[in-house]
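User: Run a structure prediction on this.
Assistant: Running it now.
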Amino acid sequence: MSVLLPARVGAALFPAAATGDLWFQADHAGFRDSSGSIMEEYYIRLPNNQIVFEESETDSGITFNGRVFVRLRFFDESGSRIAEAGRPFEFVAGSVDQARTPDRVQLLVIREPLHPRTHEVEVMVEDLNARKRGLIYLFTKKKKNGVLRARLTAPPDSADLSLSDLQFAWSCRPAVPGSPFFKNGWSIVPNPGRTYGLYLDTLRVYAEVRDRHPGGFGTYASTRTVRDATGRVLGVDRDTLALAAGFGVQLVSMPLRGLPSGTYDLSIRLAELGTDRVGETIRAFNVLWDEGSWARTEEDVLAEARAILPEEEYDRFKEMPFGDRESHLATFWASRDPSPNSAANELRLAFLSRVTYADANFTTPLEHGMTSDRGRVYIRYGSPDEVTREDLPRPGNTLADILDDGKFSDELFTDRTDRSRREGLTTANFANIDTRPYEIWSYTREGQPLFPERERLSKNTGLTFIFVDDQGIGVYTLRYSNTPRRF
């Protein structure tokens, strides 16, 4: 059988992870009723350490309460917003440790009818307690939030026989009405990242089957198949399924031990016995064996990738699903291990040491040290040979004076806004106006790059980076450099 695997391009595919100052993962699954109408379920995995729990005293003791608001915005193919939905969630942690650990998570579910023109969905989670805490919110005047936007695909359908989307789960257990995550006699605990491996080495999936044919009460051969990105079959499971009143539940439980890190596809194919009627559904899932992949946020993973990958490779990396990202980073570091027969990868240890330094020295209330402009340059090239810093520039040593004294050539100008601003003013006026704090990092040659073969200069002119604190709040942005590389 030939199966068309879903394209793995475009960051706007579920499951997705949020960016911003609050991290979460989200997925969706669509389920049809007997008339063919679709109800979409949105699943959100929110670690406790991403939100603020407020302490309160009750008759039964002290509790810690979290409050968030989840907002869904729906967009058509042209990008126009066509609908919006949302609801608040409240939850309780029993102790300070439970409130602050990433090992405890909240699983949130929102159900909404599918608008027929929906092409993309924006998911925002806003921490309703966060305004009261955190220096960052004194600057922004906003509540802590995270946002993701991903493409929505309707579940597969045929004239009569159809399957729902695959809902990837942490567990599927018999349950009674009123149980958490109850669905058709089962408690289906969602797995919004579709992540398996280190902490869950068995693939668990829930799907619904509907046969709207008048005689849809037969028996169906069910085939569950796991394939890799090339379409190669890695595992098959078969049994039969009998529908009652044209409806049934299909559960999947398949061991994953032995599969390397990566992204795979699971398909379920139903074929009615004695007829040629078939239905099929397929979705990708991730296998992660590295403990760091489970613990790190989307921004942490992207920050590492941006620091070590060439520009074009990083752009491709951003589009990858979670499992392929882990596999790609593992291959990258293994291929550059200076002593592959030893337990440690010295190059990766050097990288982590620079990350630690960047986090300790360049973190501000508004940005993480590793992802700041200074942090990225430090990680890439090491400590500069000379640093010139002006916190309160005076006439004669303002940024305008430094740029106009002939010491730096025009090739340093990589910020068009600043360049046009400079060229439109006289030196005297510019000196009076431009008193922004700045830092100049100078490397005599190419510094101490992590990957020397990639950073060699075409001429021996050294490296210069000029960082400017545009707002006067300690956030230094790279404004000028004499290298065309992106940071």
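The chain is about 20% helix and 40% strand.
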